[in-house]
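Structural biology now treats backbone shape like a language. To illustrate, our science desk offers a sequence and the tokens encoding its fold:
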Amino acid sequence: MKCSVITIDVEVLRGIATNYNGAYLSNVLDSRGLPCQSITIIPCEAKQIEQSVLQAADIADIVVVSGAVDSPSERDGKHLREAIASILKSKSVCRPDLSKKLKDRYREKINNQDEVTILPPEVSLLMHSPGNSASSRPTFGYIFSVKCSKVFVLPNDHGELKVLFKEAVLPELCGNPDKIVYDLGYLDVKREEMEGVLCRMKDVCPSLMYSTSTVPAVVYARIVAPATEDQHQQFDEAMDLLDKSYASKCFTRSGESVEEALHFLLTSRKLTIALAESCTGGAMASHLTRLPGSGEFFLGSCVTYSNEMKMEILGVPKQLIDDFDAVSKEVVTSMWCGLMGRSKADTAVAVTGYAGPGGGTKQAPIGTVWIACGYKGMGMAPHVFRIHVEGSRECVIWTTVHRALGKLYLLLEEQLS
């Protein structure tokens, strides 16, 4: 089979954003022996969508479209549905059957639910498994056939697209697997406590299997469950048990690293970030900029290792350092405020600590790190917290990187949801 990919995104078309969705879809399709014949980028205009899908259907057996399904703009969704009706040469009608499917699967009302299910009778829904959304939001797409090709329409959000593509599209293309894999990531969770919850989940759903792995400050849980309709209630109950324990600490449901999750969030929300690093010595910046496209959101990092640099670059008062020590709540807050004022970034993270093996005080022994992170919408009042890390210098640094970037991600998800 041959495939074509269409990205509906005017910012990608103008070169403002990177086409992550097109690259991801093409790469995965190619790895499954489904070569991609074309990648087309178009704005969300009904006529352009219609023409692009029909042209793609002439050269490919599979057409995968990303964008407009999850757009906050009612106009974009309307243009998409108009295009689908024109492609099928069919009239759109209210589809209570689709509304019921969405309600039954996600147990909550989707924005514009009545409008998004005004579709031709030939269109079906794509939905992810219960509980397996990249951002805990109900996610859906469309599937229909035109000429001799199947067309899959997916959301623009990269995390949601990956989940839906893996669970709803690949089985259609590569045979329906008997297992669904959930890749979850949690910040600041003890592995043994997580495994205790997973064990209780297995009591609820005996067919469920799981494994865990760790990197500093992060626990990943892979959950494997049978992909059978009659097991959905058990899956729901098991996932509810996990979410009740750790939903507020989950940064990915589709296997991204902390920096990947933050990268996609900042890009999709069009936010910028600046960093002020002391004990991490630039490691946070290195983590963020190792990913392509980081120039869309990353403004820079001030590695203010010495007290003099903290005072000169970030404007931290000398009296503050003398009174409270360089590794203190007061100093990291001042670092963050100075960074936000000078960089004009939308979000910022500041860290100061003793990574060891030397240094430390009675009040702040080796392994003590203060972290400040926040968003301009919070005003000049960052979220500030202290961590203490046992282990080597490298362990202190990488734990700080993950805790700082991960906390910013969770904070933004909470603030912007």
Summary: Residues 132-136 have pLDDT under 50 and may be disordered. Residues 329 and 370 are 6 Å apart (CA to CA). The first helix runs from residue 10 to 13. The first strand starts at residue 3 and ends at 8.
